[in-house]
Amino acid sequence: MKEFKLFLRKKDIVVSGKRYGIDALGAMAQGLFCTLLVGTILNTVGQQFNIGFLNEIIVSVGSGEGAMHYTIGGLASAMVGPGIAVAIGFALHCPTMVLFSLIPVGFAANAMAGAGGPLAVYFVTIVAAELGKLVSKETKIDILVTPGVTVLAGIMFAKLVAAPIGSAAQAVGYAVMMATELQPFFMGIVVSVIIGMALTLPISSAAICAGFGLTGLAGGAAVAGCCAQMVGFAVMSFKENGWGGLVAQGVGTSMLQMPNIVKKPAIWIPPTLASAITGPVATCIFRLQMNGAAVSSGMGSCGFVGQIGVYTGWVNDVAIGAKTAITAFDWLGMILVCFVLPAVLSCILCGFMKKKGWIESEDLKLDL
Question: What does the domain layout of the chain look like in residue ranges?
Answer without folding.
Answer: 2-168, 183-364
